[in-house]
Amino acid sequence: MRLLSARKQPYKGAGQVVATFAGASVVCQMQINQTLTMKRKLLFGMFMLMAGAVLAADSEPRDEAIAAAKKLGDNYSWKSDFDSGNFSGSTEGKTDKGLTSLSMTFGENTTEAVLQGSKGAVKLADQDWQSLSELASSTEQGRGRFMVRRLQTFKGPAAELEDLVNKAKDLKKDGDVYSSDLTEAGAKDLLTFRRRGNNSNGPTNAKGSLKIWTKDGMVSKYQVKLQGTVNFNGEDRDIDRTTTTEIKDVGTTKVTVPDAAKTKLS
Question: For 84-217, where are the E strands, in sequence order?
């Protein structure tokens, strides 16, 4: 009787076993790496979404306030009142397509001015109309040159508001009102009186705030409060100033220029 010999199974040596385990380990590590990579991508995506939401929340009131200022266009009137304790004054202005008239009152003195592009005409109290260049060369260097510098750097409310909003630390919206503290650098810039020969280190302890009221998506009023210490002619002076500006007659303002002023603008 023939005996059937059992089929011999191939023997897996130690090398084959190690190779099998090594291969499984590589596959497992690849799967782990893929999982970690996916998690990193997911976390990064979530972080970017959160950061985008924060930036959008911060920029939205800022953009809205600037848009509300731009809606004033190039035709409107305004009145600004400022109070710094023992000194106060006001400015009434009108602008129409690049032509601007100003009436500035400080104490008992009123100065009138007309600006058009880089040209300007000024009438100091009890004086005739002069061009900016004539006033700059005037023998009354103090008051005249101060006024020239002020008019040469003048910004109407629409342009001023954009600058103020960019100096705001964290503009927030509550109904139709926007408000924020100013950055320290922004408050310093607004308190700085730029004059020739001014070698001081600038204002110290500078701080301030901005508040903007809107109506129908357009700025109707804004207020700037400033505090700090400035050096004037070698003497430190504490400043606590509030300026409030109200806008009116948007789109219906008419600017009238006296004949004597027109000759100084030509």
Answer: 88-96, 99-106, 109-116, 119-123, 130-131, 172-174, 177-181, 204-215
